Give the backbone structure.
Amino acid sequence: MDPSQVKIPELKNLTIENITENVIKINSNNPSPRFKYILERLVTHLHDFARETRLSTSEWMAGIQFLTATGQICTDVRQEFILLSDILGLSLLIDSIDHPKPPSSTEGTVLGPFHTHDANDLPHGDNMSHDPAGEPLLVLCTVKDVSGAPIPGAKIDIWETDSSGKYDVQHADRAEPDGRCVMRSDTDGNFWFKAIVPVPYPIPNDGPVGQLLQRLQRHCWRPSHMHFMFEKPGYDHLITALYLRGDPYETSDAVFGVKESLIIDLGVVGKEEIEKYGVKEGTKLLKYDFVLVGEEESKKLREERSKEALEKLGRRVKIVEGLPVPDVD
C-alpha cells in the first residue's frame, strides 16, 4: 500500500489517554462500515479493559500464552476456541442475538465443539447409536412453522454422546460416525429414530479451557442432552438441544446452554409405539414438537432488537445488510 494514497494520522507521542483514538483512526480507513464499527468497539473495549484493570505485562503475557495454547490444541474434531467461547457464555449470547425467537418458536442454544460434517444420512426409524451399553430410546418429533403447518424436507443434524459420556470423535479408534446422523422431515413434518438415553458428561478438561475452569473453581460437567440442528431455505437456522429434567447439572451447565423451554421429561413406549416402531417394552420415549421461524420474520426481529438495544446504550444506528452500523447522517 502506498502511504501517500492513504490518509494516516500522525502516530507519535502516544499515551494512555490518546492511544485508543489513534488506533481507531488508523483502522477507520477500511471501506466497510460494519467492519469499521466492529473494530472501533473492539479496540475501545480492549483498551478500556486494560485501563480499568491496570493490566500488568505478566498478566498480558499469560493471556497471550493461554490463547496460543488454546489454538495449538485445536484439531479437525476438537475446537478448543469454541469451548472457550462456550464456558464464557459468549456462544449462547451470540446465538441469542443473531437468532432471536418469538415466543411461539423453539429456542436455540449452543452448538458445542463436537458437531461434525460426516454424519450418515439415515432413514426414519433407523438407529443412530450402536452403543450396546446405552439405554434404548425412541425419538418421535415434528417440525412445523409458527402457524402450525408442517415443514417437509427440513435437514436435521442430530448428535449425542455414548453411554460413557463421550462423543464418537473423542475415541482414538473411531472408524466411522456413531451417535450422530442426518435426517429429513417427511411430508407431514415428522421424523423419528432410535438412539440411547443421553447422559451427563464432562466437557474436555485436559486442555487450556479445563485449566481455566479449575482456576475459577468451576465444574466441567454438562447435563444430559441431545443436539438438533435444523436447516431449510426460507427458515432461520436453528441450533438447539433437549435436556432431561432432573439432571444433577440442570442448573449449573458448564456452557450455560439450558433453557426452561428445552427441558423435557422422558416417557416409556406403550403398546402402540412397540408395534408401530418395532421397539422393546420398557424403551424410553422422547417426544417433542420443534417450531422454526421464517427467515424474513427472524431478520425483522433481529433488526428491531438490535436498534432497541443500541439505542438504550445511547448509540444511534442504522441497519445495513441486516446488521447495525453507526448512523452518522
The chain has three domains: 3-55, 80-293, 297-328.
